[in-house]
Specification:
Blueprint (H helix, E strand, L loop, with lengths): L1 H14 L12 E7 L5 E8 L5 E8 L5 E16 L2 E17 L5 E14 L7 E7 L5 E3 L5 E2 L3 H9 L2 E3 H6 L1
């Protein structure tokens, strides 16, 4: 009896390591959100099962100017849940993205370099997720359209928005 309990305990401890899941999604919903003033807030494609962003994405300022535009991919990682391992889904930005100032002038443009980043989870060691990094090839502009050298805050602002999880959607 003790050895069975010992083996089961070891099984649960070692089975809670994060791992990757292959996804196949076919149902996409195109959604348009509006500000209270009637102007478009976003035009998005979302996965019907998770509600997460997939494919083309446009977000607008309240004044109607385009804020950002690009594409998302949907992915998952393993999370340790009370009943064992479960899938956690997230979307990450990939490819070329364009960001704009409120006056409509280009703020930044570039192609995300996809790498991995460790995300804290309830599993030992967390999980490696795909993440879009800003590279030296990105171009940044001031509100007058002049090219500038970005500071770390401007780069961090873009990188911190490069993925969104199911939990992030629930907090909104």
């Amino acid at each position: 009896m003790r050895s069975t309990l010992y083996i089961l305990t070891l099984f649960f401890l070692f089975s809670c390591k994060s791992s990757k899941v292959n996804l196949v999604f076919t149902k996409v919903n195109t959604k348009v959100e509006y500000y209270q003033n009637g102007k478009i807030k976003s035009v998005t494609n979302t996965d019907i099962l998770t509600g997460l962003r997939i494919g083309f994405w446009n977000e607008f300022y309240e004044n109607g100017q385009l804020k950002e535009s690009g594409n998302y991919k949907l992915d998952s990682y393993k999370q340790c849940c009370t009943a064992g391992l479960c899938d956690e889904f997230y979307s990450y930005k990939f490819g070329e993205w364009l960001y704009y100032h409120q006056n409509g002038k280009l703020k930044a443009k570039g192609i995300y370099k996809i790498g991995t980043k460790n995300r804290n989870t309830s599993c030992e060691g967390g999980a490696e997720i795909n993440f879009g990094f800003v590279t030296d090839n990105w171009k940044f502009y001031d509100e007058n359209g002049n090219e500038i050298k970005p500071n770390s805050n401007e780069i961090n602002e873009i990188e911190k928005s490069s993925y969104i999880t199911e939990w992030d959607l629930l907090r909104k």
